[in-house]
Amino acid sequence: MIKKEKLLAIFAVVLALCYVVVPYCFFREKGSFLFWVLTTLLVLVTGTIYTRDWNREERI
Amino acid sequence: MSASILMFSIGIWFVAGSYISYTSRMSGKVDLAEYFLGSRRIDGFISAMTYSATTYSAFMMVGLVGLTYRYGVAALGFELMYLVGTVFLLILFAPRYWIAGKKYNLISPSELLSFRYENKAVGAVNTMLCLVMLVPYASVQLMGAGYLVETLSDGALSYTTGTIIAAIVTFVFCWWAGLRSVARTDALQAIIMLVASIALIGYLTSKFSDAGGFRQMLVANKGELLRINWSPSFFIGLTLPWTFFAVTNPQVVQRLFIPKDRSSIRKMILGFSYFGFVYTVICCLLGLMAALLIPGLSLPDNAMPMLLKRVPVSVSVIVFVSILAAAVSTMNSIVLTLSNMFGRDLLKALLPSISEESELRASKMIMIVIMIACLLFAQLRLDLIVVLSSLASGGLLVQLPAVLGAFFWKRATAKGAMASILLGGLTVGYMSVTNLKFLGQWPAVWGLLVAAFSFILVSLHTKVPDTANQFIDELKDEISVRF
């Protein structure tokens, strides 16, 4: 893995843990719907930003 | 809904899809890469739509709606967790599969494993696992279509008629031009799926607005559905296999070979991500709305068919077609990929001298055989939908160590890969069939643990392929330059 992939992988693991632990600990009664929706949106935005260079013309 | 309206709507969809499928043919000689990968020249939009339609089956509008109807928001967490996992995996793995496919002229997902581990037996074992797990899963798509047609026509059209219609449509939508037919009809079907779900939620939302608002009614009458009412082990057991779907299900893995350039890969990933987000949230909201409108159903999977009986025919018809489209778009991709894997990773491994033309011809014949097998399997009407789906997702998960090892662990060996796939697959199969949940954990969890341990242990005690370093380093170098 290259450096930015390693950072993304670490972010993914942390987020996956939060995805389960946070709702079960803090939002079990209410709020989990919003938590999951917002966290997923965060991931989509992260993906959009991470891949923005893939649109540029190739260097090789 | 009358049988004539159902048949008319199916007819329009079938004619439109058949036209697209037929006109997708390329002139001149068709080779394997053209038939199964569209010559790796598929643009970003079509790649995104075919990825979405392949991933999201009839489960979404029937199973997920039913799951949310029964359990509430936990079902949303489960499905969004899958989406999040897929987005991360696509960003990390799509460039690797795409580069490896182009660089080493790889066509099937199992072929990549054979190539990396320098042993065709790895691809053959992996292909057999996929056949065992995916043929029943594909049959479930036909079963869903059969039940839907029978229920919505109030028995005027039989279950068997529904399964035969779905099988014929599936076959026509993939036969003529292979991946090009599948990808372009998938694009049509993905659009139908999204439009139908938006139309239905729009109609129901307007009805709830007249009655005081959906959220208020939900809190007042079905507040328990806003609580997480799954145990953590249930949540993990259900979620774990689906989180890694993007690298363990061959029909979606093969789509990572098809984009024409980097920009198309990006469009595929992002297009799928946003499609999946909108579609998932809508399906879960529909489940919650169904719980308010038609409470007390003994079978949650009936929530969507019952809901469709309460909306205008114009809306229910398009939703009905969208569910069939979701089933067919998943099934034709599975059939196409399995037939390719059979030809490439089993037949070619047994008969290395076979020509490409013969291999393609054999693969197309196998496509017919798989279709018939699925149709016959569906006629058994086994009450095993949940077991089969669980078996498929858990069983395919056992490929994960071999896939990760192929890309990231230079010490990984062919024998380690085969041991993990075989032992992990047997573990999941045995636990699923006997409904065994050792220490309260699901078969997928134990299958993955067994696969991971056997992969590591056997790899550490067997010979590393000569070109392992080269494969991993070359991909890494290209990614650092191009991505």
Flag low-confidence runs of chain B.
none
- The appropriate CATH architecture of chain B is Up-down Bundle
Top-tier CATH class of chain B = Mainly Alpha
Count of distinct structural domains of chain A: 1
Most extensive interface, chain pair and sizes: A-B, 35 and 39 residues
Net shape of chain A:
elongated
Radius of gyration of chain A: 15 Å
Shape of chain B: globular
Low-confidence stretches of chain A: none
What is the share of helical residues of chain B? Answer: over 70%
What portion of residues of chain B belong to β-strands? Answer: under 5%
Number of strands of chain A: 0
Q: In angstroms, what is the radius of gyration of chain B?
A: 22 Å
Tell me about this structure.
The complex is a heterodimer of chains A (60) and B (483). Chain A is an all-alpha fold and 60 residues long. Chain A has two helices and no strands. In chain A, helix 1 (3-26) runs antiparallel to helix 2. The longest helix of chain A is centred in the N-terminal third of the chain and has 24 residues, at 3-26. Chain A starts with a helix and ends in a 10-residue tail after the last helix. The relative contact order of chain A is 0.11. Chain B has 483 residues and is mainly alpha-helical. Chain B has a single domain, classed as Sodium/glucose cotransporter (Up-down Bundle). In chain B, 78% of the residues lie in helices and 0% in strands. The longest helix of chain B has 38 residues, at 313-350. Chain A binds chain B through residues 1-2, 5, 8-9, 12, 15-16, 19-20, 23-24, 27-30, 32-33, 36-37, 39-41, 43-44, 47-48, 50-51, 53-55, 58-60, and chain B through 73-74, 76-77, 80-81, 83-85, 87-88, 91-92, 226-228, 232, 235-236, 239, 243, 261-263, 265-266, 269-270, 273-274, 277, 281, 408, 476, 479-483.
